[in-house]
Structure formats: C-alpha cells, structure tokens
Amino acid sequence: MCVMFTIYIDDFNRRDIFMIFLFRGQKKKKNSSLQRIEDDLSRARAAIHEAVRLRNYTSNKEETYVRRGPVYRNAYAFHQSRIEMEKRFKVWVYREGELPLIHGGPLNNIYGIEGQFIEEMESGNSKFMARHPDEAHAFFLPISVAYIINFLYRPLVTYSRDQLQRLVADYIGVVSDKYPYWNRSNGADHFLVSCHD
C-alpha cells in the first residue's frame, strides 16, 4: 500500500513541491552516516527558514541577546543559524601525526589562536568535537603552519613553499588512505587553521 503526500513550501518567493511516498509493510533502510548528516542539515535549514518566515527564532535555552541591525541581511536567519550550529555542528579531529608539527601549536604569541584552536578541539571538552567521524559535518587537520615554519624553515634558507606543501600533501595522503571522508568530498569539508600577518 502506498500513501502520497504533497507539501508546498514557499521559501523566499521560490515555490518548492515535495512529494512524499509512504510505503506500508516495508522496512525503512538504515541511513548511511552521510545521509544522517544531510538529514540533520536539512532540519537546521528548515528551522532557519521557519525563523525567517515567522520573524522569530526557536531555542531551548534563554537567549539574552538577539543580534539586530543593518549589518545582518536577516537577523532572524543569522540568530537561528547560530542556535542550530551550537546544537548540531560536529568536527572530527584526525589523530594521525606527531608533535611538534601536528597536534600542537603556539599558545602565547601573535599566532596563538592556531595553537589554542588545536588545543580546544583536542581537549575533549568542546561541544563541537565529534565522538566518531561518521557524525562529523567537518574534518579538522590539526597541522600547525606556525610550527612548520618554525621547525622546517629555521634557519631560513629559502622562501619556497615546497616543504610546507609537501608536508600538508603527505598528511592528506595518510588520512585519505586510511579514512573514506576526504575522498567522499574531495576535501571540501576539511579544514586547517593558519594565522599569519
């Protein structure tokens, strides 16, 4: 038996029509991790669109400050987006590599945000840290560019970026051989932090 629902959604003056087919008597297939992530992002997008439509936001916690002003294209969308990010967004930190070039960074100089970010993500206390790579929306390569410059380019013999590029390419080669996540997006959902002047 098949039941069909048609849903009309007016989204920013663009009409979308969704047809949902429900089949009784069939087991629902188990979603892949990528499909679960896409479903989660879809729920976040729906909440953001709803905040825009209602000119309001929904949150499970007391919000003391709601951003307003001409700097925001839509303050409701921005605010709801932040709420959804804090509720859902997860980052997997790769564990491959060794100090000092990987998993560490400067903490108390002008490039300190790099080391602070790595330390925060690897501390286990961040609400954004994924417990398993299958639940991650983004993947962090814990490479310290500041330490690479400090350890590989001292004494300074050349300004060539070849050593830096080779090290990053080697690290990407290791994680792409070991895990399927780089390959499924060709690295589009992977990032590293580098601060420079």
UniProtKB/TrEMBL annotation:
InterPro entries: Exostosin, Exostosin_GT47. Keywords: Coiled coil, Glycosyltransferase, Golgi apparatus, Signal-anchor, Transferase, Transmembrane. Residues 27-54 form a coiled coil. Residues 86-197 form the Exostosin GT47 domain. It is a single-pass type II membrane protein. It is found in: Golgi apparatus membrane. Pfam families: Exostosin_GT47. Belongs to the glycosyltransferase 47 family. This is Exostosin GT47 domain-containing protein. It comes from Xanthoceras sorbifolium.
